[in-house]
Design a protein that fits this description.
Elements (H helix, E strand, L loop, with lengths): L2 E5 L2 E4 L4 E8 L7 E7 L6 E6 L5 E3 L7 E6 L4 E6 L8 E8 L13 E2 L3 E6 L1
Parallel strand pairs: 2-11
Antiparallel strand pairs: 1-3, 3-8, 4-5, 4-9, 5-6, 7-8, 9-10, 9-11
């Protein structure tokens, strides 16, 4: 059974940092592109970052320079390091996998999704 499990969310003060993890099982995640998306209350799910199979990365403008996506293929895990967090970063963060190996910003391009992890940023 293919499964993505996110962890690492929590409550942090503005300016602080968190590292989210996305552990894959039932699939060799290094063969996939991986993305992080987020959804705040009352808003749609939005793209945050992706990493292609070859390591190419892309970020939403709102997080560029503050967030870093990377992967540890030995652990079958993708991470999102979030620094200089702002209250507007608060959301449920979702990890997703794309079999095409090329990263995308579009939600519909992703085949598998995790259950999400809550990030809360206090001002």
């Amino acid at each position: 059974q293919v499964q993505l499990v996110e962890s690492g969310g929590g409550l942090v003060q503005a300016g602080g940092s968190l590292r989210l993890s996305c552990a894959a099982s039932g699939v060799t995640f290094s063969n996939y592109a991986a993305g992080w998306f987020r959804q705040a209350p009352g808003k749609g799910r939005e793209f945050v970052a992706y990493i292609s199979q070859n390591g190419y990365t892309s970020y939403a403008d709102s997080v560029k320079g503050r967030f870093t996506i990377y992967r540890d293929n030995a652990k079958n895990t993708v991470y999102l390091q979030m620094n200089s967090l702002k209250p507007e970063d608060a959301a449920v963060y979702y990890c997703a996998g794309n079999r095409s190996t090329v990263g995308h910003t579009a939600i519909y391009k992703y085949d598998i999704w995790g259950q999400g992890t809550q990030v809360t940023v206090s001002s």
